[in-house]
Design brief:
Two copies of one chain form a homodimer. Chain A is of the alpha/beta class. Helix content of chain A is 44%, strand content 17%. At the A-B interface, helix 1, helix 5, strand 9, strand 10 and helix 9 of A face helix 1, helix 5, strand 9, strand 10 and helix 9 of B.
Chain lengths: 218, 218
């Protein structure tokens, strides 16, 4: 089921979490779940779950709840997890390598087709079947293989220097670990900025306020 | 100003983001801002901002807005960013090294006091003034130096094997990149789970629905 309206960022942000919890339920052979049970599991209100899923047409049945397998599949389709959108990684330093080794791109909707790095000591190395290429080849690669998404694991100034080239050559989405503001400079691209510092600060709040009830941010 | 009630996870999650935007404004020498202007900048409603900040007693003045420097400082204090809570990193593989090199722990409320790894090739290496230690020394280290927080950059089964030891020796907070469920096994600890896959799936949604208005998740 496809959305035919603008879904808010907050809902979009929560979708992968629903998908993840439903996947866990599936693995435990749970076949159906009420919005109340799901809400207790996920620590959100049942009304929020209903509201969120209603953005895409509902899926629940009064008195039955949600069919776990069906909802998982539908959310996966909405998230595009089967699309195998061609993606590249810029930067094969520690962060880039951590992503290459720990993230299953195909399960998130992407096929990793290229890894780029400027450090000559890393160029030529092999990771998950891909040879790290000189970042100088990026433009030609884009024109030949048409990747649509780039994971940005290089510093801000290097990202800034390459942004025009990427956008001009068909990159429309950025998984951005740098602090370069792609949106500000390039209208129309889609960007998910990852702020690891924010999540560490959240933990700082929680250990500063040990007496409060919150035990987990998930 | 300290909170004297339970603040919801959603509000806690948004606090570092407010802090970050206010820091950017400060760097641009902006001295005051209305909740409406702040809301346009951050893509949340002005009423949400007022509601969130009211959890901690407000800070805004009718007709004046927010004093940027004051609010930044107060939110920093609420987040505990000056606490220098002693923290350790478990795992100096790619992810651990990426965090060590890219996250300024002291600006997030923590002082990094130890790095632990089981790989003999990495033990003894130096990062930011710390020598990577054998993870076998973890218990003794905790008893001597009393770290309170651990960044978990080791696989789930290794995290599971060490969790009891850490909790028994005073670790109360986990910045958790593994999929081990600390809360399920250890009541009372504070956990921030980082799900990088979720954010990549969010990008998958956005490039799957290019026609929708959302351009940035921040």
């Amino acid at each position: 089921m496809k959305s035919d309206k603008n879904v808010s960022n907050s809902v979009i942000n929560r979708l992968p979490r629903y998908y993840r919890f439903l996947g866990t339920l599936l693995n435990k052979d749970v076949t159906r779940i009420s919005s109340k049970e799901l809400s207790q599991l996920m620590h959100v209100t049942a009304s929020q779950i209903r509201q969120d899923l209603n953005c895409f047409g509902g899926f629940g049945q009064q008195g039955y709840g949600y069919n776990v397998e069906l909802l998982h599949r539908e959310l996966g389709s909405i998230l595009g997890v089967n699309n195998m959108t061609p993606a590249i990684i810029l930067g094969a330093g520690n962060l880039g390598k951590a992503l290459i080794n720990s993230i299953e791109f195909p399960r998130c909707g992407f096929q990793l087709v290229g890894i780029f790095e400027k450090n000559p000591a890393v160029i030529g190395q092999n990771y998950i079947g891909l040879t790290v290429q000189d970042i100088a080849n990026l433009e030609k690669f884009c024109q030949t293989y048409h990747p649509k998404v780039a994971a940005i694991c290089i510093p801000k100034d290097e990202a800034a220097a390459l942004a025009d080239t990427m956008v001009a050559n068909g990159i429309v989405g950025f998984w951005n670990f740098s602090s370069y503001d792609f949106n500000f400079h390039h209208e129309g691209v889609k960007v998910v900025n990852v702020h690891l510092r924010d999540s560490l600060m959240t933990l700082s709040y929680m250990v500063t306020h040990m007496d409060e009830g919150n035990s987990k941010i998930d």
